[in-house]
Design brief:
By secondary structure, this protein is an alpha+beta fold. It is built from four helices and five strands; from the N terminus they run H-H-E-H-E-E-H-E-E. The protein has two domains: 50 residues, no CATH class; 80 residues, Alpha-Beta Plaits (2-Layer Sandwich). It has a five-stranded antiparallel β-sheet, with helices on one face.
Amino acid sequence: MIRGLTTAAGLWTVACIGLAIGSGLYEAGIIATILAVVILALLKPLERYVISRRRKRVFTIIVDKSASLDIINQVFTRQGLKVVLLEIQQSDKSEENQIFVTLGKKMGEADWPTLMDRLRSVDGVIKIDFKKGNLFR
């Protein structure tokens, strides 16, 4: 499976290097190989950084029906996080609702403990589930 622009460019580069070596242009093939390795070594971390900055984070918060959505929204806002989307899934059978919060800005590692503590302190919050499957109680 091929994913990402860097991977596709790398495959085309290797194909061209193979053609050069196959044609007897050994010096050009070796120079192109060295350049490709250096460029790809520099681009991969840059690509990861750019992609991770643009990725949205999604929280699922399970709350009592008495929990205040305004207070939950304020917790994210006080942390300097932009709430892009706030969805509520109400349950008819239980006294719990699910709130899906989509954030637009990447969170630094230092933000996690404070955000989790503030969310846990909101009356009515039962569980907090992050998109990657990390469950915080």
